[in-house]
């Protein structure tokens, strides 16, 4: 079902502070940046590696308000890893299979993700406390 | 410097419980299992994808005692994502470059990692609260 580790989402207080740190440490560069109002974040995707099944990224997430999931995460736990996202070829099939297998989904149907991707989150309780996202890359990616 | 996301390390109370969950959810299978006394863990590597620069894995970590880093993490935060590990081609050069750039290292020289790899951890404070590991795969991998 999974084609790659698409990204690891990291909650940060400030993109302006976090991006230069990742550039300085690892020579990563920003491949994409956008604001996702529905998810309540400003985000930057830093490319780690482009493989045969797509890219793997560090995703830096800055909340746009305190009353957002990432804003609450930062307030409660401080900056750090927020979620992991796996690439899938067909997210509709993947969500159907997970539902049949008894896993609870935060998003029963895909929602808008980074750069036109289709994404869905699984409930952490079903996968050992890990907020887990599935990503179907946009056409042509 | 980075060649891939090598793995995401997930702290679990029990490998026997967590492995079947990841098998059921995503069809992942255990590629490798070992006990690392120095790191204080029993671990299982579940292959997500084998790419041109090496494998990407979910690493499930069960502490061998409570007074280990993962044991303390579990007691304090509960099960969840513990660290992220990036592949590098030459870990000695990578650690030298990070030191020159002013990043603090937990391991100033590489230690024994999964399946004969050479690894080193960076201090979380330098990279936005994220425990970050570098991995040089063993010869021939």
From TrEMBL, chains A, B:
GO terms for molecular function: metal ion binding; methylmalonyl-CoA epimerase activity. Keywords: Metal-binding. Residues 4-137 form the VOC domain. The keyword Metal-binding applies. It comes from the Bacteria. GO terms for biological process: L-methylmalonyl-CoA metabolic process. PROSITE patterns: VOC. Pfam families: Glyoxalase_4. CDD domains: MMCE (cd07249). Signal peptide: none annotated. The keyword Metal-binding applies. InterPro entries: Glyas_Bleomycin-R_OHBP_Dase, MeMalonyl-CoA_epimerase, MMCE/EMCE_epimerase, VOC_core. Belongs to the methylmalonyl-CoA epimerase family. PANTHER family: METHYLMALONYL-COA EPIMERASE, METHYLMALONYL-COA EPIMERASE, MITOCHONDRIAL. This is Methylmalonyl-CoA/ethylmalonyl-CoA epimerase. It comes from Parafrankia irregularis.
């Amino acid at each position: 079902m999974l084609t790659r580790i698409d990204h690891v989402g990291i909650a940060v207080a400030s993109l302006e502070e976090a991006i230069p740190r990742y550039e300085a440490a690892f020579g990563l560069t920003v491949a994409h940046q956008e604001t996702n109002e529905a998810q309540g974040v400003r985000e930057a995707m830093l490319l780690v590696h482009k493989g045969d099944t797509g890219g793997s990224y560090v995703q830096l997430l800055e909340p746009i308000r305190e009353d957002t999931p990432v804003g609450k995460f930062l307030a409660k736990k401080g900056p750090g890893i927020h979620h992991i996202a796996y690439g899938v070829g067909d997210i509709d099939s993947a969500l159907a299979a997970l539902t049949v297998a008894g896993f609870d989904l935060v998003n029963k149907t895909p929602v808008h993700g980074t750069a036109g991707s289709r994404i869905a989150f699984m409930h952490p309780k079903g996968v050992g406390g890990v907020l887990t996202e599935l990503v179907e890359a946009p056409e042509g990616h």
